[in-house]
Design a protein that fits this description.
It is a single chain. By secondary structure, the chain is α/β, with parallel strands linked by helices. It has one domain (13-174): Collagenase (Catalytic Domain), CATH 3.40.390. The protein contains 5 helices and 8 strands. The chain has helices at 24-33, 63-71, 125-143, 162-167, 174-179; strands spanning 13-18, 40-43, 54-55, 60-62, 78-84, 88-89, 98-100, 106-110. The strands form 2 sheets. A 5-stranded mixed beta sheet has the order 2-1-5-8-7, with helices on both faces. Strand 1, helix 1 and strand 2 form a beta-alpha-beta unit. The chain is globular and about 40 Å long. The protein starts with 12 loop residues before the first strand and ends in a 19-residue tail after the last helix. The model is unreliable at 190-198 (pLDDT under 50). It binds zinc ion (ZN) (2 copies). One zinc ion (ZN) is lined by residues 149, 151, 154, 156, 172-173, 175-176.
Length: 198
């Protein structure tokens, strides 16, 4: 299956970029979760909250603007995943959980609407962690070239709300796994995802 841009075969690292102050336990947990890609993972702690992307009329932050900034100066071996607490929108969508450059270099996820507290409910740390992993694996799947998948249990299924997110698994279906195979450590078969690509 030829759905990964040639450029992305050069990717060697996932760079997690918290935008502003984010609970370091959540970042550490996400770092562990993303080991499934078989890439080196580093955390870069220099980015401030994305005030430049604030839209006064919507009281939300423009995710496309944030992606643009994250992309400036990106190294060709790096995949950038921005993580923010602020609520994101994109174009005419009411909100987005995240956005990615398909087959590109950068993605962003927002934790704002993944937290039960956002809906006036009691916080649930375990549920929050599961949702963060799903959104991160989804957006990184896009960066590695995957589009949305029709399988409601596949992590690449499009979540229009949290019911969709909670209903899907935190990894790829077989078809999508093939699409990210050069990067994916498939524990089910115990093979190194990188061994199939030079
Ligand atoms: Zn998506
Ligand atoms: Zn799939």
């Amino acid at each position: 299956m030829d759905i990964i841009g040639l450029k992305n075969k050069e990717k060697k690292r996932i760079v997690l970029v918290p935008l502003g102050d984010i609970n370091s336990d959540l970042i550490e947990e996400l770092k562990q979760d993303l080991c499934l890609f078989g890439l080196e993972i580093i955390v870069e702690l220099l980015e401030p909250e994305p005030a430049y992307a604030f839209d006064l009329s919507r009281r939300q932050y423009n995710s496309t603007m944030i992606l643009k900034r994250l992309k400036s100066g990106v190294l060709k071996e790096d995949l950038i995943l921005g993580i923010t607490m602020v609520d994101l929108f994109s174009k005419n969508l009411t909100f987005v959980f995240g956005e990615a450059e398909v087959g590109g270099d950068v993605a962003i996820i927002s934790l704002a609407r993944l937290d039960q507290g956002f809906y006036g409910m009691k916080n649930d740390g375990e549920l929050l962690s599961k949702r963060i992993k799903k959104e991160a694996v989804h957006e990184l799947g896009h960066v590695l070239g995957l589009k949305h998948c029709d399988d409601v249990h596949c992590v690449m299924y499009y979540s229009s709300d949290l019911v969709d997110t909670d209903n899907k698994k935190d990894d790829y279906c077989d078809v999508c796994t093939d699409g990210v195979a050069p990067f994916y450590v498939d524990e089910r078969d115990d093979i190194s995802g990188r061994s199939t690509e030079k």
